[in-house]
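Hi all, posting the design record for the shared folder.

TITLE: backbone redesign
STEP: 1 of 1
STRUCTURE INPUT:
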C-alpha cells in the first residue's frame, strides 16, 4: 500500500469571517462578510440590481457577526486540534482586523496582537500555521468606496496588508496562500472581489479586471515573501471541480475542455505559469471584450512572470458535468457552480455531487499541467448533524466521505502526484459561506449553536474526531 510521505501536512481549515466573531472588537473594521445577508437566499439577494453594501440590520440576519466566538475561545479550539494530532492548521487573517478600512497606512496593533496569540498557540503544540492572506473578507470600506478589486488602488492596499503580516510572521509561518478560491469570482464575485451587480448583472469585464489586479497583488506578495525568506512557500488557491462531458458528443467534449480552461485553470495558469494562457482572448471574446480592453501594464506582466506561486492549494468538494446538447438532462440544482446531474454520483443535501474518483482525476490533471506540489486545503461534507442527550454525534456519513477522498488522494500519490497535505474544511463547525448559516456543518467538533444564534457555544467531539485522530496518528495507514 502506498504510504503518505513523511511530514505530510494533516490538519484542518477555517476562515476568519466564518468562525472568529468579535466582529467589532479589538478595533476591527467591518468586512464585506459582515454585511452579507444571512440565509440560504444570500446569493440571490446580492445579485439583485438594488443590492448595495450597507449594514442593514433588517437584511442582515444571524450569524456572521458572532461566528462560533473563536475570537474568545481560540485556545480551547486549538487544544482540540492538537488533541486530534493536527500537523498544520489553515486559517485566514481578517484584513479588517489589521487595516480596519483597508486604505490606512498604519496597521491596527490590537488586530495583530490577536494573530500573535493565535500563532503562538499553534506553535505551542507544534502545529504549523498555514495562512490564507485574504479569504472572502476584504474591508467593507474598500468595497463601498473603491468598488472592490476592479479598482487598481486595491493592489497597493493589499500589498501593505501582505507586507505587514509577512514581515511580522515569516519566521513562524512557512506556508501562505494569497487569495482563497480566486476563481470562484466567476460565479460569485461579491465574496472574492467585493463587486456588486452593475445593471442587474456582474459585468464580466469587471471580474477579469479585478482578477488582473488580484494577480498583480498576489505576485507582489510572492515577491515580498521570497525577499524575506526564499524558503517561504506561497501558493495560490483554486476552487477545483473536476468537469466531465455529459456524453461522447464532440460538442460537449469541447464545451468541457473550455469549461476547464475558463473555470478550473485560468487563474492557476496565470499564477503558476506567470502568464496569461493562449486561450485568454477566446475566453474574453465570449464575453464581448478582449485582453487589450483591460487596464494592465508591461511592468505588471513582467512581475507576474517573475513571481509565480510555489504550490497549488485547492478546494475540492464535488465534480460537475457539462452538457450543451441534451435538453432532457436534469440540472444539478443547489450547488453554486452549475452543470447537470451525473447519474453515477450521489449528492449532498445541498446538491454537491460527491465524487472521490474526481479528486484523483483533479490531482492528476493539476500535476500534469503544473508539475508543482499540490495542497488539498479544503474538502469535506456539509451535513445536518444530530446531537443526542449524551452530546454524541455519530457522523459516519462524514467519515465515509473523508475516507473515500483520502483513499483517492493515496491513489493519486501512487500515480506519482506530489501532494503536500490535506486540511479538511471546517474542522470545527462554523458558519457556511454559501448559506450564512450554522446548520450546514463540516466539523470534527460540534458547536452548540443554531441558525438563530441560540446555543451554549460548547464544543463536543463527534465520532469523526476519534477517527481522524487515528488517521493522523497512523499517517493515513488506518482509515
Ligand atoms: C469554500 C470556501 C469556504 C467554505 C467552503 C464550504 O467555497 O472557501 O469558505 O465555506 O467552500 O462551503 P459552504 O460553507 O458554502 O458549504
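Okay, here is what came back for every position:
SEQUENCE:
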Amino acid at each position: 500500500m502506498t504510504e503518505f510521505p513523511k511530514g505530510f501536512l494533516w490538519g484542518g481549515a477555517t476562515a476568519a469571517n466564518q468562525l472568529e466573531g468579535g466582529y467589532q472588537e479589538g478595533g476591527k473594521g467591518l468586512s464585506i462578510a459582515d454585511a452579507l445577508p444571512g440565509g440560504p437566499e444570500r446569493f440571490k439577494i446580492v445579485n439583485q440590481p438594488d443590492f448595495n453594501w450597507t449594514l442593514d440590520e433588517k437584511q442582515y440576519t444571524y450569524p456572521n457577526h458572532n461566528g462560533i466566538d473563536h475570537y474568545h475561545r481560540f485556545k480551547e479550539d486549538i487544544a482540540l486540534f492538537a488533541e486530534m494530532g493536527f500537523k498544520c492548521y489553515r486559517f485566514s487573517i481578517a484584513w479588517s482586523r489589521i487595516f480596519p478600512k483597508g486604505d490606512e497606512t498604519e496597521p491596527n496593533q490590537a488586530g495583530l496582537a490577536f494573530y500573535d496569540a493565535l500563532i503562538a498557540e499553534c506553535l505551542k503544540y507544534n502545529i504549523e500555521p498555514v495562512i490564507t492572506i485574504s479569504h472572502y473578507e476584504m474591508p467593507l470600506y474598500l468595497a463601498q468606496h473603491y468598488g472592490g478589486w476592479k479598482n487598481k488602488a486595491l493592489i497597493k492596499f493589499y500589498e501593505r496588508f501582505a507586507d505587514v503580516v509577512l514581515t511580522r510572521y515569516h519566521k513562524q509561518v512557512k506556508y501562505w496562500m494569497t487569495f482563497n478560491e480566486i476563481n470562484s469570482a466567476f460565479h460569485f464575485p461579491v465574496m472574492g472581489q467585493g463587486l456588486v451587480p452593475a445593471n442587474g448583472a456582474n459585468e464580466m469585464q469587471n471580474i477579469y479586471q479585478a482578477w488582473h489586479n488580484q494577480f498583480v497583488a498576489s505576485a507582489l506578495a510572492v515577491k515580498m515573501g521570497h525577499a524575506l525568506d526564499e524558503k517561504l512557500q506561497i501558493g495560490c488557491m483554486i476552487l477545483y471541480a473536476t468537469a466531465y462531458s455529459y456524453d461522447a458528443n464532440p460538442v460537449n467534449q469541447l464545451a468541457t475542455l473550455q469549461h476547464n480552461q475558463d473555470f478550473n485553470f485560468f487563474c492557476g495558469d496565470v499564477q503558476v505559469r506567470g502568464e496569461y494562457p493562449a486561450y485568454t482572448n477566446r475566453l474574453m471574446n465570449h464575453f464581448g471584450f478582449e485582453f487589450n480592453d483591460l487596464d494592465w501594464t508591461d511592468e505588471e506582466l513582467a512581475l507576474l512572470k517573475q513571481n509565480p506561486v510555489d504550490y497549488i492549494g485547492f478546494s475540492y468538494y464535488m465534480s460537475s458535468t457539462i452538457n450543451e446538447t441534451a435538453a432532457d438532462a436534469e440540472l444539478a440544482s443547489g450547488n453554486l457552480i452549475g452543470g447537470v446531474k451525473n447519474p453515477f454520483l450521489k449528492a449532498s443535501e445541498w446538491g454537491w455531487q460527491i465524487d472521490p474518483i474526481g479528486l484523483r482525476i483533479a490531482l492528476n490533471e493539476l500535476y500534469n499541467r503544473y508539475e508543482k506540489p499540490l495542497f488539498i486545503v479544503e474538502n469535506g461534507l456539509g451535513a445536518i448533524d444530530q446531537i443526542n442527550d449524551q452530546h454524541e454525534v455519530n457522523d459516519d456519513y462524514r467519515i465515509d466521505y473523508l475516507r473515500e477522498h483520502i483513499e483517492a488522494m493515496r491513489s493519486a500519490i501512487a500515480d506519482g502526484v506530489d501532494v503536500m497535505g490535506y486540511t479538511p474544511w471546517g474542522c470545527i463547525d462554523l458558519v457556511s459561506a454559501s448559506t450564512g448559516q450554522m446548520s450546514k456543518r463540516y466539523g470534527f467538533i460540534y458547536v452548540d449553536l443554531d441558525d438563530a444564534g441560540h446555543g451554549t457555544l460548547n464544543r463536543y467531539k463527534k465520532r469523526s474526531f476519534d477517527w481522524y485522530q487515528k488517521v493522523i496518528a497512523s499517517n493515513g495507514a488506518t482509515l
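COMMENT: The pocket of 6-O-phosphono-beta-D-galactopyranose is lined by residues 15, 18, 136, 180-181, 239, 315, 378, 382, 425, 432-434, 440 (CB under 6 Å).
Let me know if anyone wants the other runs.
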